[in-house]
Amino acid sequence: MFRSLRFQLFAGLVVILTGAGLTTTVSTRDQMREALIGAETRAARNVLGQIELQVSNRYRELLSEKLRIVGERRSALEHIAAVTIAAAEAHDRLVTGGVASPAEARALTLDFLNTVSPGGSVQTLAMTRDGQVVAHSDTLQRGRDLGAQTDIKGRPLPEAVQEDIAIQGQAYILFDDSEADGGADAIGGGNGDGRRFAHFRDLPELELFIGVSERIDDVERYVETGVDATINMLAETLAEVSVVDTGFVFILNDALEEVTPSADWAAPLMNRRDPVSGTPIPELLAAAARDGDATATRYALPVPDRSIDMQAYVSYFRPLGWYIVSTVPTAEINRPANVLIRQQSVIFAIVLGIALMLAALFALTVTGPLQRLARYARQLPEQDFMRPDDAHQALARLARTRSEVGGLAQAFRFMEAELRDKISAMLDATRDKERIESELNIARDIQEGLLPKIFPPYPDNPQIDLHASLTPARHVGGDLFDFYFLDENRLLFTVGDVADKGVPSALFMAITKTLVKSASGQDTDPAKMMWRVNEALSTDNPRAMFVTLFVGILDVRTGHVDYVNAGQNPPILLPASGKATLVRPISGPPVGVMEGVIYTRLSLQLSSGDSLVVYTDGVTEAMDEKNAEYSTDRLLALSQSLRGQGASGLVNGVLEDVRQHSGTALQSDDLTLLCLTWHQLSLKE
Amino acid sequence: MEYLSVTHEREGALAIVHLRGRIDSATASEFETQLGTLFADPLDALIIEMTELDYISSAGLRVLLVVAKRAKAEGRPLVLCNLAPGIQEVFDVSGFTAIFNIATTRAEAVAHARN
Question: What domains does chain A contain, in order, with CATH numbers?
Fold first, then answer.
């Protein structure tokens, strides 16, 4: 299964898709987390910044308001002082006008200062150069000695006034008058802060300083009220502000007390310690502000049943001494990132699942044609190649696709068509071959029919012991033998070898045999017969087919043999006793070579019991695997040793020996042997 | 093993064919074809040198006969020369010695052909 292209394709796609997806996911996850957490962190910090800005703006407003009020108050004081000086000058004019005496003018001025009631906590006074109070709007303070009074800077009052007036023409002095300020001012409230702000002018004619003063705790209180209002407003605002989800902003003062309250659920943080560092949480937060707020401060908030990990961003507002804290559970900072990542993972899983299914589908689709092709190829041997191809629509469709599969399918079709043709041709050829074989077999039968088959041929004739055998090299052969009685005393025997072998030679063999038979009917002289046969064969012989031919005529009465040897191997004369020898003389060339040849008649004389062995060169030239010939000598020797076995014994013995010699080598030429043994009839029989 | 090599050279208008190997039924047709192409050229005479011919079967003899007949018909002498003893015997035994012009040496053959 793991080898299949389908699986490999699918697996490859799975690996690629999963790999790409995982890589993308993993590499973006961290960035996403950072981005989202960063966003939430920024949000927490932004809230802090916003609140800080609000506080800062409000404070600035209060300050400028305070300045305005202070300015106003100052103006008021200056105004009253100016009025007093105008009155003094008016009184002075009375003196110069002769209406009043200087003492009276002075008394008027002092009286003016005594009786004017500016309202609020404003007081008017006149003092001598060394601080004796000669007039005061507060009756209790008339006659007081201000020489001992110091201003805020520690300078004795008269000196301070003197100095400032000398420099600037007027003096502004801040001094603490707590001792003198009893319960007289309802507005002032008579509580701790007795500081007064005084404006002094010089009355040189009377040698007095006049001063107008006011308690400053109004202004201070005004600012305090303003701050309180701010705090209330902030408390309301901050109660509505949430950081991320349950996170909140609250404010601690320098004493680490709540200015605005923390969220209800987180109330314990004021009293608890951070488990890790052991520091009380408010201290931890204050320390955070001092360290700068580059990274969040982490702490754990112990609530009743668990411990919540928190993050805090703190900034310190110096003018009010406030620690503004934005704090939120760490989990909430991380939650969006985690949610998103979880979502992303789910989406990734779903998409991957779908992609895998598509990949499987794809693998199936791509390899589908290949499988079809494979199936088709497997079915190929089952086909009947003789029938024309009309099936395989699917293959035709496949071949039309443009891809490599299409090319493969086309190659298949081509191959199949070729196979079809070749096999068809081969089957035809085989049929032809079989037909030829069968024809050859028939021809062989016919040829065998031409040859004498019955052995021994003359069982009742004690003079003749004759045996012959012809083994063609192929289906049909070019050798021939024949024997028949010409008359009651003369036996004709013939052996021939047509040039070459096979069908052409077989045809010639049949012709030759017939010619010999016919010639033997026309002549008694074997030389004449040979001439006749040669004349017949030489004409119309374009292929120069020739036959080596031996014709012998034995007179059974006498043992005389007339013979003609036209190119045939010299027969063996095997006497009843003694050496076997070759009968060498030849009568002329083979028949069929050329016309007009006159053959020489030869003869020999047999004694009783002698044998003649006539053979073709297929015997003596039979070759073994090493191309060694059987040889005439071996034939001679063997014939001699087979003497006395009878004609058939000799023939079969030789054939067997030749077979042994040949071994595994193919028979290269037709094998023909004829053995004729003559026995003379005794006169007695 | 069947093999036959037929090479030839020209000495003027004389073609001398050199045979090597065996002429049997397997190589006979090749032999016939090769000799046939030779005859396409104008020749005065054809000499076949058989020094390295190991064997000749009746099929080979037949081809030689065809060649001889053709040569005779075209009036060109055909001389065989340098027959190995075994081949000579085949010719003798089969009576072909009387049919062909057979010379002992090449020079003799050339001389015979030139006449």
Answer: 38-221 (3.30.450.20), 240-335 (3.30.450.20), 452-678 (3.60.40.10)
CB A324 within 8 A of CB A55: yes
Contacts of A525 (CB under 8 A, 6+ apart): A562, A601
CB spacing of B58 vs A617 below 8 angstroms: yes
Q: Report yes or no: B73 at the A interface, CB cutoff 8 Å.
A: no
Residue A184's pLDDT is 44
ipTM exceeds 0.90: no
Q: Which of B66, B93, B95 sits opposite A544 (nearest CB)?
A: B66
Q: Which of B1, B62, B95 sits opposite A544 (nearest CB)?
A: B62
- Please state which of the ranges A218-232, A320-334, A507-521, B95-109 shows the lowest mean pLDDT: A218-232
**Could you read off the pLDDT of A87-120 as tens digits, one per residue?**
888 888 888 888 888 888 888 888 888 888 778 8
Percent of chain A at pLDDT > 70 equals: 95
The label of the residue with tokens 């397997």 reads: B26
Interchain CB distance below 8 Å, B62 and A546:
yes
pLDDT at A188 > cutoff 90:
no
Which residues from A are below 8 Å from B when comparing CB atoms?
Answer: 478, 497-502, 543-546, 548, 566-570, 586-590, 593-594, 617, 621, 627, 668-669
CB pairs under 8 A between A and B: 62
Nearest CA in chain A to B59: A500
Mean pLDDT of A129-144: 86
Amino acid code (one letter) for A423:
I
Buried residues in A54-89 as b, exposed as e (16+ CB within 10 A): bbeebbeebeeeeeeeeeebeebbeebbeebeebbe
| Whole-number Cα distances in Å, B91 to A496, A613, B110 | 17, 22, 21
Instruction: Residue window 40-59, chain B: list those with CB within 8 Å of chain A.
Output: 57-59
Q: Which domain holds residue B107?
A: 4-114
| B73-113 per-position pLDDT tens digit | 888 889 999 999 989 988 988 889 888 999 998 888 888 88
pLDDT at residue A612 in the model: 96
CB–CB contact B95 A627 (8 Å) = no
Residue A554 has pLDDT above 80, yes or no: yes
Interchain proximity B65–A548, CB inside 8 Å: no
* Nearest CB neighbour to A499, from listed B58, B69, B98: B58
Sorted by sequence, the CB contacts under 8 Å of residue A456 that are 6+ apart come out as A465, A466, A467, A647, A648
Q: How much is the pLDDT for A192?
A: 61
CATH number at residue B30: 3.30.750.24
Q: Residue A604 pLDDT more than 90?
A: yes
pLDDT of residue A576: 92
Domains of chain B: total: 1
Closest partner residue to A548 (CB to CB) among B59, B66, B94 is B94
The number of CA neighbours under 13 Å toward the Cβ of A206 is 31
Judge whether residue A648 has pLDDT over 90: yes
Any idea which residue has 């012989």 for tokens? A541
Task: Walk across the sheet containing A297-303 and list its strands.
Answer: A258-260, A248-253, A322-329, A306-317, A297-303
**Inter-chain touch B59–A499, beta carbons under 8 Å:** yes
Which of A499, A502, A567 shows the shortest C-beta gap to B95?
Answer: A567
